[in-house]
Every structure is written in structure tokens, then in C-alpha cells.
Fold these 2 entries.
Entry 1:
Amino acid sequence: MEQPIVNTRNARWSNYIVAFFSTALIFATALYASNYFNNQRIEDIRATQETISTDILSLETQFDLLQEHSCSDISENTILPSALRTLASQLSYMEEQGARNHDEVARLKRLYSLLEIKDYLLMKQISAKCGLKPIFMLYFYSNKGDCEDCEKQGYVLTSLAEQYPQLRIYSFDYNLDVSALQTLISIDKVSEQLPALLINGKSYYGFQSVGDINKILPQLATLKAASSTSATSTKK
Amino acid sequence: MSDGGIGAGVTYLFLFFSLYFEIFLLISFLERRRGHFPTTRTTPRQFPHVAVVVPCFNEGQTLGTTLHSLMALEYPREKIEILVVDDGSADDTLSIARSFAHDTRIRVFHKKNGGKHTAMNLALQNTQAELIGCLDADSTVDPKALLALLPVFENPSIAAVTPGIHVRDPQTILQHVQRVEYRLSIFNRFTFAGLGSVFITPGPFSFFRASVVRELGGWRHGHSTEDMEMALRMQQAGHLIANAPNAVVHTATPATLRALFHQRVRWTYGWLRNAIDYRFMIGNKRFGNLGLIILPSALVSIAAGIFFFTRILWNSLQETMHYITRVEATGSIASHASFNLFYINTSAILFLAMVSVGMIVVLIGTGSFIGTGSRRLPAATPLFLIFYGLLAPLWLCTATVRAVLKTGVRWR
């Protein structure tokens, strides 16, 4: 048995100090580890952006060579819409994680918006030249807390993008300080009634449900039919 | 959980404090194990006259077992008396107590109901014993428990000693969970004693120097936690309270959530009201470790428990709202999210919370070692970690509100 306690009520300061430094060390390790993993994520995003950037450059080059080659060399899915979606989802996650890498995340987000605009313009040019008919959807949102329906609209568009990979959906933070984005907003005359959708050049304000979008884009039914036919053929 | 904002700042603060306290206790325990404190014998040099008081109020169902265990204590018959005080029971407690009166060691008293402290004081007035102890009528003692306690009193500075309390015969899941909690309490009580900072002398088999109790004026109501009030008064008067974990006591614990909730509201309420009465001790260097860290931590732990619970509840509600919004918007309950390492939560808060929980597991293991000699964790340890995090804040909140409103609490 342990015999207690002779004058032990008095504080032994060494215990207090050792406990403090041990706790501080654990805290420092946790903060360092968390920071390390966050930096790894930033690196992942940067790598994805570089890939997309390279893809766009490659497509631009292909486009320049169009005079000499046939349109059949370029398909409308050349630039990976899924890669852009992944990037958007990763950036959104990083934003939710808070302020620690805020500046870096904001910088990556601006770059992401530029890549989207560049992809959008290039695809429009290719479509015009090659007679393609992709569906373009530009989505403007705000995450400043002044757009009640933006979260819902985001879910609808994510769901549509998963259902119809052929859709080219570009999402933009309306308040982002990127001059090219602000020019796009002013050219397309998108007002600040968010959420706002620009579908094949026409503006729609307020929340648009899956049903609303299906009405705006009846051709979605054809896309769906095409995918189910393809799925059936594969099965056979 | 986000890493930014005021909420996160407070979370970090509470996590730092919790972790600091856990590490402080572990260091203090290890220091004690390393031999800064002398060890002692396990048998007493002499056998002082002792009195064990069994205060009862409607304990007819359990009193017999309690008295049988007391009669089996290994101690010279002429040196021990068992004082059964029936505190105005409405059941057959008195007749059961009287059926044991044939044993010369047992004396039975009957009084009008007045609360446990009045029963203890009646016994104090009616005994000449040098040491007086209490055994709640829902507890039983190991035959060697008294022999294990007494050597501690050879140190004249020690006015009281607490035993090692274990859950008696756990049946329900709730009792198994409490068994884990009691192992943690064994660690706490042992380490607090090493720091001269015990501030509760629990009902199951705590012993006191009768002279000190008389000098302090006997037991008080103490907001229905007379065991806490007495310990704080002893600490205030400069007495030390020891712990003898190998003096094994088994106590019945609430089998239902309702009973547990009621018991814990009473304990927490009593602690908060006593903390207000003895607020001059909190942060006071004169009371050493007790004033500087043990009492402040006991208060902060209540605030932290309520805060963490509220934050987790808030985050869960937000997640649920997001989910509902998504289902409403897309009409689909399935999520297309696939597993991706990118989205694994690596926040510092999560890491620190895991370290803190890991430390609690270490302390439970240490408590098991102190109490049973085995480091093996009770099987219900994972349940305890989940259960107490979710449910304890409910009684913490209730008790805090009631303590602020001074509503008082009943034993039953």
C-alpha cells in the first residue's frame, strides 16, 4: 500500500512546469501535423491545376492546328470536366476547413476561376468551328452568407453533373476579385440576384430545381436516353 | 469541426486545459510510484477502537448484506462497533437491523428522518471510538478492508482516509459503464491523495479521526453531499486526507439511466454549491495543489463538458440540416461521395481530442492497476468513452442550472 502524504499538499512547481511543456509539445506537434497535411492538400490542388492548365494549352494548340486538321481529332470532352469538378470540390473543402491557409486557398480559387473561363471560351470557339453543341451552364454564387439558396443550388448542379457528365458546368464565386471574372459578369450582364445561372447564354435568377432545369434544357432527356442505351449495349 | 473562429479558440483552450490536467496527474502519479513517498506496512501496529456507522433510510432490501459483510471484517471483536442508524425509514429497515442486534458488536438506533448527516452525528454522539467510519447500506466491504485502512492513521497529520471503491456486481450495461468510471475514480482519488488534495470522503467506508470530526462540529447537510462538505472543511482546517486503494469496498450503482441521472445531478449540484461556499480555496496558494489545480480543474471540467457537448450537438445539427437540404434539392438520399484521402479530417483539434481520449484510457488502465493489480481495461471502456461524452453533459447542465437557481436536491 502507498503511504500517503506528508506535506504533499504544497505544490511541486516542477510538476506544473513539466506538465505545461509536455502539453505545449503535444499541441505544437498537432498543429505542425495538421499544417503539414493541409500543405499536402494545397500541393495536390496545385498539381491538379497544373494538369488542367497543360490540358488547356494542349487544346489551344490543337485548336490552332485546326486549319490543317479535321475536327474529328478534337472531341468535346477533351478537357476533363470531371477534373474541374474535383478541383472545385477540393477547394470548397479547403474553404470549409477554415482560415489557416486562407490566402493560399483564395489564390488557388482565383486561378481555378481563370482556368474555368479559359476552358469555357475555348470550348465555345471549338464548338463554333466544329459544329459541336455542348450545353454550357455558368453558375454564379456567393458564400458571404447573403445567398440563402446557393447551397441548395450547388447540390442540384452537383447532382446534374454526376448524372450528365457531358454538361459543362462552370461555377463562379460572384464576389471573387478576379478581373477576368468581373469582365465576364459585366459582358453577360449577370446581376447580383444570386444564385444566378447562365444557360446557353440566357440568365436565370433564383433557385432552379432539377425540374426547372429539365424544362429549360429538354435535350437533357436525350442525353439520358443516350447514356441508358449505351449502358444497355455494354451489358449485351 | 473547423479550425477557425472563436468557437475553435475556446475548444483549443479547453483541450489544452484538459490535456494539461491529465498529464499533470500522470506525472504526479509516476512521481509517487518512483518513491518520493515512503511505502508502509499493510497491517496496523495497534488496533484502535473503531466505529462503523451504517446510516439507513428505506434500505431494507440491502441492509442485511451490508451488515453481514461488516460482521465478516477481520478485526478484534472488542475493538469494533457497528452503529446502525435508521433515519426514519418507512420500510422494514428497523426490524432487519434489530434482527442483527444479537451480535454484541452491533447497536441499532432509530430517529426521525433528518438526512444522512444527522444520522452520522447521532452515531458520533453515541460512540467513544477513536476512529469513525461510514458504510452506506448499499455497499459491502472486503474482510481485510479495515486492516488495510488503519495503518494510514499512524501518520498523525492524517484526519481521514478513503478506500478503493468498486462497482458491486454490475448487471446492466449502464453499471458496466460505471465500473469503468469507478476505475478512473480510483486513479483520481489515489493521485489526489498524493497531492494532498482529496476533496470528497465518499459514503462507502471512508474513515475519520472522531476527535477531528468533533473539533470541526460534526457533519453538515452540505447541499446533500455531506461527504464533500466534510472533506472541504477538513482541508480548510489544514488536515490531510489519505487514500488506501487496497481497502476494497463494493457499492451498488444505479441500474437505470433515470436513477443515474438523479444521482449525478445531486453530486454535481452538491459540488457546485460547496464550491461556492468554499470559493476562497479556489486559486488560493495557501491550499497548495488543492487550491491551485484540483478544485479549479473540477470546475473547468464541468464547463468544458458542457461546451464540448454543445459544440458537437451544434455541428451535428448543421450536418443534418445540410443533408436535409441536399435531399430536398436533389430528391436523392444517397450520397455519391467516394472515399478519398484528400477529405480525411486532419485538423489539429481532432488530433488533440484523440490524444486527450487516449490519455483517459491510460488513466483508466492505471486506475485498474491501482485497484486490482491488473492493467487490463474493463470491457466497457469504449462504451464509457462514448456514453459519458454524450450523456454526462445532460446532468452537468441540469445541475448547473439548479445550482444557479439554488433549487436544492433530494437524495431520492
Entry 2:
Amino acid sequence: MELCQLTIHEAHRRLVAEEFTAVELTEAVLERIMAVDNDVKAYLTLTPEEALAQARAADERRAAGEDTPLLGIPLAVKDVLCTEGIPTTCGSRILEDFVPPYDATVVERLKAAGAVILGKTNTDEFAMGSSTENSAFFTTHNPWDLSRVPGGSSGGSAAAVAAGETLGALGTDTGGSVRQPAALCGVVGLKPTYGRVSRYGLVAFASSLDQVGVLAKDVTDAAILLEAIAGYDPCDSTSMDVGGYNSGLQDSNGLGDKNGLQDSNRLGDSNGLAGVRVGVPTEYFVEGIQPEVEATVRAAVDVLAGLGAEVMEVRLPHTDYALPVYYLIAPAEASANLARYDGVRYALRVGGGGLDEMYKATRGQGFGPEVKRRIMLGTYALSAGYYDAYYLKAQKVRTLIKADFDAAFEQVDIIVAPTSPTTAFRIGERTDDPLQMYLSDVLTLAVNLAGICGLSLPCGFDAEGLPIGLQMIGPALGEERILRVAYAYEWATDWHLRRPTL
Amino acid sequence: MKLSREEVQHIAGLARLALSDEEQALYQGQLSAILEHFARLQELDTEAISPTATTLPLRNVMRADEPRPPFSREGILANAPAIEKGCFKVPAALE
């Protein structure tokens, strides 16, 4: 197998065995990027010189006797996460020339673990979108079929992982932006519990929903990446002081061997899923779902049952309202967060007239159509006379959506559903109808509204050869639980071993 | 919920967004359709439900009040579109 196709844990084992160096591994991945990224277009910025310097430093640390699961491992970072001295555009013209003076906490943690940062991946502008078509620069192409979208907004990260242009990547998930592209690109994507991972240095979109997540080739790699970035950060007052991602779970989860994740290179062998209660929510098999997606996900549920899990139906009665609730709360928070782009302190400035004219011209020209649409929607929902009917109403229904999950997790340990109602759609197919695009996220939004955790992993392909994602949803701080069930599923199947031909 | 052109202009003003005539027409139609779709939220009786602003349990977050080195002035100003005498330079706010 080519080095660029290795998983993180395989590469780590072979780095330790001195089969190759971090520099050789990094060179192999950079060569892969040179060979395929003209077609895939996953990266907005490449940093080969910095990457090779970091790889050399990793080799020196290893020679000095040091080891971490990420020492010398090449990774990619979504371009909404600040990187010191490296442009961070958020896929927007308004930040085209912005070079952050600091690293996001998650980037700092990857660097401290000795990871090699290859570059910054494409995203819908300010992470607002489901296809990367809202990037101001270009659209990323799905490695399984270059005429289709990779999903979004972390589509650059998902496509890079699927195409072997990195061993793993960071993304962000406000309404499904890690899980949906993971599903469409046939990789594993994990959105942690709100508060599990620091948001310091993540350019804010919707602050009560945003969370940094990971994209990887298999479940073990996703666990390794989460372990590296999770934990309390004094710079983010919403990050939870629960230690690493597995240490805080000891009392809340009762799935089998609790020490399985201590050896973070592997999740250990599957002990089967005896005693695990899996809920299948009726409301997630929505009208308009692609029949192959439904059939494949139901077959995956049968695999879990075959491993000993107890499968039962659960109800999440307010699921239908998640879309309007999300598309009122997220734009409302975005309209406040994006007020900072005023042409004064950083990046773009347009117009030299009065101050107010400068604000309007800068924002009018600097933001793309979807960002302006959401700022307008959010401003309206917060404006005098409409606040109660829209924003406050949405916050109240958010309470009901969260209560649905609380009740379901009284009955079951995890919830299993499709990640996306369809496989990857064609580039251009949904750009004229924002509401149709919003429906791409209909099965992932509620998890963010409830602040809980979810992942997507490959569970099959449709007749066109496009990957289908299986979503596993856990309660707050239930990461170990969903990773364990996902690992058992992966152990029983071989979907995660498929790679696109490029 | 159908938005008028005046409402679109009012919201754009609140959000400090310069919009062309074409954009105003586009957003008038699209936002009206979106809000119409969202009207079904009103079906739910939420009289007795409290709003959720955050999913985290409310608690005080304290830290030691110790001075730390700030970002350098040069580092911050490096991203500014216009500077003068070590400060951000902006168009006149008053006539």
C-alpha cells in the first residue's frame, strides 16, 4: 500500500518500527497532493516547507526517544481554524488576506503532539453550506465522482482524507458539517459533545452550536485525533473540565471494558455488542430519503443486531422542527458574530466615504450570497417585533428537541440513523434553491441543537458507487460509547477499507 | 410570511450590508419562502417551555487574575487595512 493511503495508527506503528521516517511519509503525501489535488481541489493553502520542517522535527523527537500517536503524522486543518502565520480565509473574500497572529487551541495541541500540518482545506464560506459550493474560491470535488460535491462545509477535509491527500483532518460541525461530508466522501467523521473541544481560535459562526470535529479513515484514527484535541481550555469558558475524552466518561457509560481506549493506538478487539441497546428513530427515515440509503442503513442496523445489540424503535417527535429551529438560531448567532467584519481591524476594506458607507460597502462586497442571506435571516429573526415569534420561539422548540433525546437515552444507549438523506449530489444541482440545500442537513442538525455527540462512518455504496454514511448518536459526553459501537461495526465489515480510484 | 422590499432594505440597513437591486429582489423572494416554510413552528404550543440558549449546565467560570503578555501591537496591526501612528485608521465618523 502506498504510504499516503495508510491510516494514522498503521503509519504510527511503522514509524515506530523505523520502516520509514516522518519526512518520507510527509513527502509521499505531498506527492499525492501534487498528483490529484488539481482534480479534487481539497486545499485552499498548502504549506509544504513548514510541513517538512515539522516532519524533520518529529523525526528528531522520535530519535530522542519521544513518542505520541501523532508524532510525525501529516494532517490537514479546515480553513476556519486559526493558524499562526498561515492565511486563514474561512473561504471568504473578506478574510482573503487575513494571517492570524496565533494558533487555535486545537492546532496548538496537534503541533504539541508532533503532528505535521500540510495545509488548510476548503470550506463553504464561514462554514455556511453543505457542498463547498459557497466557498468564495472554488468548489471541492468528490474523490468518488469528480462531478459531485464532497458535502460541506468541511468538504475539503473530507475529500482530502478520502483521496489520500492527508492521513486525517480537523473539521468543524455546526449543523452537520463534519458528519455530512464524511458520509458523502466515505470516511469517518466525529462531532464531539458541545464543550468537549475548545473553540478558541475557531472563527465563530454560531457560538452555541459550533464544535471542532475530526475526519479520519477509520474509527481508531478518529479516536486518536479526538484524544489529541479534547479537553478543558482556559481560553474557552464553554469548554468542559472533564479531562481527556475518555476519562470523564467513567460513570456515565457502561459499555463493556472501560479501559479499551487507554491504549489509544487501537480500540482493542470487539467484544461484541451484547447488552447494548440501539435505538432506531422512526422520524429519521424521512420522506424523500433515497431508497438505497434507507435499505443500506437498515442492513447496518441488522449487523449491529448480529453482533448482539438489542435493537428497538425510538421516537424523536420534534425532529421535523429541527430544520426551522436551526435555521433561525444559527443565522441569528451568525448575524451577531459576523458584525466584527467591519473593515476596521483586519482584512478587506471597501470604500473611502463615511464610516457607515465603508461598513456597508465592505460587507456588501466581502461576503458571498449565502453569508448575506443568513445575516439577513438572522437579523430579521432578532429584530424588534419579530424576536418573540422567531428567535425566542426557536429557542423554546430547541428545548423540546433536546428533551426528545433525553427521553430516548433513558431507553437506549445509542441512536442509529442515516447521516444524509442522499448520497453525493451533482455540483450545481442545488445551488439555486437554498431551502433544498438546507435539507441536506436535515438528519444532522438536531444533534447540534441538543449539544450531544454524533459520528458518521461508511456503511455501503449506492448503485452509482457513491458512499453511504451511518450516523451514530450518543448522549452528552457519550463519545466513548459511539466510538465503541462504531468500532464493533467496522470490525464486522470492510467498507472502511474501500478507497476511491483517482 | 411575505417580506416587502422596504423590509428587506430595513434589515440590510440594520446589518450594514450594501445590497444591489438584484440582490434585494433575490433575497425578498428567498427569505419569504424560507420564513413561510418556518411558519409551522407556530403550530407548537410553547407557552410553558423555557428557551434553551446553551446546552451546558450554567456555572461560574473563574480563573486566576494574572497578567499575561498580550499580542504584539505589530502583529495585530499587520492585518489592518489602514493604520496611522500605531493605531487603526478609519474614515471620519463625524462631519
